[in-house]
Amino acid sequence: MKQGILNTIREKGLLLDKEIFEIVESFQKEKDAKIFLERIEMITGQKIITKSTLNKNLEFVKNIVHDFSEEDKEIVERIYVKLGLHLEVKRETEFMKDKVAEREKENSEKKSENNFKVFYSETIPDKKLEVKDFVGNLRARYQSLQKILMTHTELQSNLIGINKIGNDRKSLNIIGIVVEKRITKNKNLIIKFEDLTGEISGIVRHDNEEIFKKADELLLDDVVGIKASGNRDMLFVHDIVFPDSIKLDKVKFDEDVCVGFLSDVHCGSDKHLGKEFEKFLEWINSDEEIAKKIKYLFFVGDNVDGVGIFPGQESFLELKSMEEQYELLASYLRKIPKNITMFMCAGQHDAVRVAEPQPILSKKYSSSLHNIENLVLVTNPSVVKLLEGKKEFKVLMYHGASIHNLINEINELREIKAHKCPAKAVRHMLKRRHLASSHGDVVYIPNAEKDPLVIEEVPDVLCTGEVHRLDIDSYNGTLIITGSCWQSQTAFEEKVGNVPDPCKFPVLNLKTREIKIYDFIDEENVAMRGKE
Q: How close are the terminal C-alpha atoms of the chain, in Å?
C-alpha cells in the first residue's frame, strides 16, 4: 500500500477490515484513497470501517466516489459487486443530465444528508463469547469513563492509581469501578473499588448522611471518582463523584421546525391501537400549524409485537408473522409526509437479536421498511445529530431495556414507584454516563474496543420507550423523553400492575425548545381493546 494512504490510516486511527483494505489498496490514485477514507470517517464518526459501514451509508459513498477518476469509479463498483453490495455511480454525462432535475427538487425536498448525521453503535456479529470478551468490555468502559472523570476539577489533584497507595495515611483521589458492596454490623458501607492497577476497599460511615446516600445508590460496575483518605489497607470515603452529564449550551435552531417522538407501536398485537394511530396519521397530514412544522420523527423501538417473544404469545397476536406485522407498520409509515425524515431503532420485540447494541432491522422480515425513502433505520442505541449550519442538535435514541433494573436496584426509584415516572430512572443513565451500567441490567454483546453503551457525548435529548408511559424531565440541560405506546394494557402489564398511558405524542420545537403533547386516545376503543 502507498505510504501516503498508510499515513492517513495511522493519523486518523482507523481500523479497516480485510474487504475495505482491498478497496483502498486497489485505487489507482492515492488522492482518491485518502479522500475515501477521510470522508467515510467524517460521515460515520466511526474509526472501524467495515462492509456494514459502507452498506449503511450507501448514498454518501456514491457522492464521495462521484468525483473520483473513471478508473477508480470502476474499481469501487467492481469490488462492491464482489462484496455483495449494489453501487451504481453515475458517469459524468449522466450526472450533468440529472443536475437540472436535482436543482428543481431542492426547494421542495431538502436533501437529508445535509440535515443530519447518524452515529451507529458498533454491532459486533454474534459469536461464541468468552470471559475475556466481558473483561475487555469492562476495561473499555472504564477507560472511557475515566477520561470523563479526569476532567472533573475536584479529582485532578492527588489523583493516583490504586497500586500507588502506600502504607502512610494521606488524602488522595482515585477512579474505580465498583466490584463489591456490603453493609457491616455497624450499618456502615464497605465498597471494593478496582482500577487497571489493583483493587482496594473503602468505608462509608452511616452517620455521614450525604455521602452514605451517594454510596448506597452505587450499582455494581459503576465507574466513579473517590475522594478519600487512608492507606493501602483501607480508605475512608469523603465524597463520591459520578461521571455526570452537563449540557451548558442549549442549542436552538433559527428555523421554526419541530421533532416528534413515538415508541412501542406494537403492530400485530391484539391490543394494538390502530384506530388511534390512524388518527395520528390524519393529523400529521393536516394543515394544523404544528403538524406542518414537523421535520423529524423518532421511533424508539418495539415497533411490532414480534413472534415468540414469550411463551404462548401467538394467542395474543392479531398478525401471526413478522412479515405481516412489518407490512402493517410500513403501511402506516408510507402515509407520513415525504418531507418528514423518520429514524427508527429496534426494541426487544423487533426482529433482531435482543442483545444490545441491537443492529438495524433486517431485510429478512422488514423488507417493506427498507423501501421507504424517508425512513432511516438505525441501531439501538444511536446518536442522531440534526444540523442547521454549524449547529448540532444531538438526539440519543435508546429503547430502554435497563430502566426496569435501575428502578429495582436504586432505593430512591423504588420508593417513588418510578415505573409511573420513568424519566426519573433515565436521569440515572445520564448521571452515570452509561445506558446500562450494571452487568446484568440487559443482555449485551461485549466489545473490547469500545463500550457502545457509554454516553460519550452529552445529548440535547435522550429519548426512550419500553415503559409505555410518556414522561418528560430534564437533567443538567438534557431533555428526557420516555415514550408513550400505541397498545392498550396487556395481560402481563395487568399482572405486574403496570398501567400504560397510550397514544400520547410529544412534539419539541427546535427554535423555542417548547414541548407540546398531543393526545390521540379514544377512551371507548381502548377500554374495548382492553377487555378483548
A: 66
All three cell numbers of 282: 390524519
Grid cell locating 42: 467524517
Instruction: Look at strands 170-183 and 223-231 and give their pairing.
Output: antiparallel
3 state DSSP class of 79: helix
Burial (0-12, 13-18, 19+ Cβ within 10 Å), 500? buried
Q: What is the pLDDT along the chain (532 residues), one digit of tens a residue?
A: 567 778 777 877 788 877 777 777 777 777 777 777 777 776 666 778 877 777 666 656 666 666 666 666 666 666 666 555 555 444 333 333 343 344 333 333 333 445 999 999 988 776 788 888 899 999 999 999 999 999 998 898 889 999 999 999 999 999 999 999 999 999 999 999 999 999 999 999 999 999 999 999 999 999 999 999 999 999 999 999 999 999 988 999 999 999 999 999 999 999 999 999 999 999 999 999 999 999 999 999 999 999 988 888 888 999 999 999 999 999 999 999 999 999 999 999 999 999 999 999 988 899 999 989 999 999 999 999 999 999 999 999 999 999 999 999 999 999 999 999 999 999 999 999 999 999 988 999 999 889 999 999 999 999 999 999 999 999 999 999 999 999 998 888 888 888 899 999 999 999 999 999 999 998 766 666 555 5
DSSP string, 267-329: BTBTTB-HHHHHHHHHHHTS--HHHHHEEEEEEES--B--SSSSTTGGGGBSS-SHHHHHHHH
* C-alpha span between 330 and 303 (Å, rounded): 10
Same fold, 150-241 and 258-531: no
CA–CA dist 59, 382 (Å, integer): 19
For residue 508, the SS3 value is: strand
For residue 382, the surrounding DSSP H or E stretch is strand 382-388
Look at domain 258-531 and name its CATH class.
alpha beta
Give the CATH architecture of domain 150-241: Beta Barrel (2.40)
Q: Is 270 exposed, middle or buried (0-12, 13-18, 19+ CB in 10 A)?
A: middle
Residue 393 contacts residue 386 (beta carbons within 8 Å): yes
DSSP 463-492: EE-SSS--EEEEETTEEEEE---SBPPPHH
**pTM listed for this prediction:** 0.77
User: Which residues are within 8 A (CB) of 451 and not within 5 positions of it... i.e. 6 or more apart?
Assistant: 137, 138, 140, 141, 144, 434
Are the beta carbons of 204 and 193 closer than 8 angstroms? no
What's the rounded Cα separation, in Å, for the pair 131 and 156?
A: 33
What is the Cβ-side half-sphere exposure of residue 127, based on CA atoms within 13 angstroms?
10
Per-domain residue ranges of the chain: 3-108, 150-241, 258-531
Helices (H), 89-205: 92-106, 131-149, 153-156
